[in-house]
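Morning run. Coffee first, then this:
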Amino acid sequence: MNTQPPQLIVEDLHVRFRTPQRLVHAVRGVSFQVGREKIGIVGESGSGKSQTGRAIMKLTPPNGTLTARRLQFQEVDLAAASEREMLRVRGRRISMIMQDPKHALDPVMRVGAQIAEAIPQDLRLSKAEKRDRVMAMLEAVHIRNPARVFALYPHEVSGGMGQRVMIAMMLMAEPDLLIADEPTSALDVTVRMQVLAILDDLVTRRGLGLIFISHDLNLVATFCDRVLIMYAGRIVEECAAAELANAQHPYTQGLLASLPRIGSRHQKLAVLSRDPAWLEG
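And here it is:
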């Protein structure tokens, strides 16, 4: 039994966006905690998964408003933290892997230089020391020829390698919490499993906390320790990942029923029916 205190505490988190037409309530009263474990957040597009991750990083867009009864990371009150204070947390103590490395990486900057930028400035390393650290991290994410990749531009690397570069960049500051937003969605099955193995090894070896945002229920069930299921900005169910197949909420059951299975005799996949009562939690 894990008796360590949680690294992240989220209580009654709300994210709202003001549009010309209406007020959009993207995240509605979300509450959860994260320790040194792998937490999966699943749900359909628009369910609030990514906005929850961005809110933790205080990266809500300018037209959005974030409120929370409590948003605490270790000793830092994230809800009350200024942008200056967040600069000491964001990328250093909490890192986020974005969905598409082709868009997240600077296209006119070489891979090695981008990863080196993630090294905290207060370490005051020389140029040679920074290069050594970058090379070591590229090796840690299983890039075979780090010297070659160091000198490449983002458009010169494959999708799987680009995702490894993103992981390397986010881990340069040795954060305590890693948020991975659909880190394998654009990868083929073989590369996906390689990237997941890298994340699993790094989380286990470094004792990180991981929030893994995904559409893939089967993937989360096998990779994570716990799963949060989101619908319309709310967490409708939480369960151990190993028990996801036995989920009780009708929304989770509907998601599971809609998954194709090898050997299934059903000619048509189930269509998810939504109950307006789910919006009320």
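Residues 232 and 276 are 10 Å apart (CA to CA). Good start to the day.
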